[in-house]
Amino acid sequence: MIIKTACHKGRLVLKFTPEQGDPVSHHKFSNSYKKSKKVSMTSMQCEIHLPSDWTITSVHPDLFALAMLATIYPFAGKTIRLPFGISQYFHDQVFKITKKKILPIDKKLSRRKATTNAVPALTFSGGIDSTAAVALLPDKTHLLYFDRLVPKGTKTLLNQEAAYYACKQMKKLGKAVHNIKTDLQYLRKPVGFSTFLTDAVPALLLADYHGYDALANGQTLDLGYRIGHLGYEDCRETELAKPWHPLLQAVDMPYTLPTIGLSEVVTTNIVRQSPYAEFAQACSRGKIKKPCMNCYKCFRKSLLEKVMTNSPINDKYLDELFQIKDVKRVLATKHLHYGNVITYITSHYHGKHPEMLALKKKTRGDRLDVSWMNKWYPDAEEFLAPKYRDEVKKRIFKYVKPMNQKDIQTMKKSFSKEYFQK
């Protein structure tokens, strides 16, 4: 893959030219609907709107190279060609981990090192989980919102009003917030992130401009350790961390994932107790303080909110939720996406709604111990950069206790690969 750049007043344009051997498409498994779908790179150009005085020299070439990997990784073959050289160190690390070569190499270039006064960067969505991350990270953390540039004439369910509102409120509270407009998601069809690191591309490109030495997001235990859809697996071996965890370390911007050891149950509770509860909103389709209530995420998050606040779940409300088309599609699958969260919800349901009772039985909410979902998984400590580890753990322990060995065994056994393969 050949990559060319143009930059004028901070507007970075990236142009991609596939070479022979570059895969233009691949199949990706949908965790929600349990079907594989074809994903293709259909656009060969995208743009990212950075600060007006940002230039290509504002970022270390190794950071830029990692940003490009995060953008086109599944569509790139054995070689990625940039318009400038990267360090020998980063080239070697990339090849060792991915078997891909990034060229050219600048023999005189030293590897990227963050400054001593650098701060963490958080990919912020305005949702519940990334807002919980704000509460757990150092106050000096910068929040970067991936502001979607929707091509003209493109139909979309996306509504960024609530996210913009959350960013605005965070700024009022003194947070450093950066809205970075980009159409990166539209490089592929169906629209979406090509990798787990794509939403961090703005943070990588601004890492030297603002000074970042750690990368955070709001990914939770449910997805990070796959207990919510495929069965427990060491996070280091999942798409979230592999190959990104070691490559981020190679550019001195390691993962610092405050919520990766916490379930959605805990992140919901953290936000409820934080100064951010008034504006955090999981739904990216609804309006400000008005979720769309027409998707599986709204189904899951709204029921969880009711459980966490001990609010009544009446039959009329459930009738409406179970009529949602997207919910019907997900519930029709054998093992539900974020099924552990549904187990937690149904374990706290004591009504008589027939569909809810059937869901309770299906997700084993009538018999599983779910208390571990109210705690922190201590193995997640490895995804907290040493510089920030103690502070983040101290903040976590304000809300929850760590799991003990019995909790960990229950989690791994209840949501094992063997269970999901039945």
Provide structural commentary.
The model has no long low-confidence stretch (mean pLDDT 96). The two termini are 41 Å apart. Helices cover 35% and strands 17% of the residues. The strands form three sheets. A seven-stranded mixed sheet has the order 1-2-5-10-9-8-12. It is an alpha/beta fold and 422 residues long. The chain has helices at 61-72, 88-98, 128-136, 161-172, 201-205, 207-211, 221-224, 244-250, 264-272, 296-308, 315-322, 325-331, 339-347, 354-362, 386-396, 405-414, 417-421; strands at 2-8, 11-17, 25-30, 35-41, 45-49, 79-86, 101-105, 119-124, 142-148, 176-182, 188-189, 212-216. The chain contains 17 helices and twelve strands.
Question: TL;DR of this structure?
Answer:
This protein is an alpha/beta fold and 422 residues long.
- Which sequence of strands runs across the widest sheet? 1-2-5-10-9-8-12
Spatial separation of the terminal alpha carbons: 41 Å
Helix/strand order, N-terminal first: EEEEEHEHEEHEHEEHHEHHHHHHHHHHH
Instruction: Summarize the biggest pleated sheet.
Output: 7 strands, mixed
Query: How many H/I helices?
Result: 17
Which structural class do you get from the secondary structure elements? alpha/beta
Shape: globular
Average pLDDT: 96
> Helix amount, in percent?
25-40%
Compute the gyration radius: what is it?
Answer: 21 Å
Q: Which properties best describe this structure?
A:
alpha/beta; 3-stranded antiparallel β-sheet; 35% helix; 7-stranded mixed β-sheet; 422 residues
